[in-house]
Please model this.
Amino acid sequence: METPDDPTPISHRVAEGLARVAMAMRSDEWTRAEATGLKPTQLAILDFLGGRSLPARVKEIAAHLGVSQPTATDSVSALERKGLVRKSDAPGDRRAAAVGITDEGRGALAAAGSMADATTTAVGALPAQEQQELLMSLVKVIRHLQEADAIPVQRMCATCRYFSPHQHPDAAKPHHCHFVNAAFGQNEFRIDCRDHEIADPATRAATWDVFQRDR
Model:
């Protein structure tokens, strides 16, 4: 039994807190999905495809969502029947299918995205500095999960080949994105960027060292 004199580790309590937030997020996902006649996995697939400039293979979709390939296949088939995604031959492998979002799919995604959700509202209630600190803490947690192979490499700035940390003397915008050739700050750090191109492992490690050392 936990007592003030013998509390559970703080890491455990933080994980408990994240689990409670995840509960609210799942509820938000069901609400958004049902409002557009979809299931949460189907809406998550549209989210993923809507943030990409190119179609994705089912294997990529399953890995990103953390679901089995058969589950992703079933959801993609349901979306295809609704006209929200379209299949085509994967580049370089005509035996594999690539899945892209249609205009109708983007419309459904926009309708779902226009709905306010409790989690975003709760985070938005925090002071700006606390939001930025929370974002950076989440980036660290995500990186640890990536390094432990618990999740796939995410499309965030810290893993992108276009990211150069602490390239500018301006404390408000110290980082540089070579894709858009612009400086940016911690509050603009991306967790899921559509223009992301993964850096090789050695570059990712070196970039993270610089990012951490100069913070």
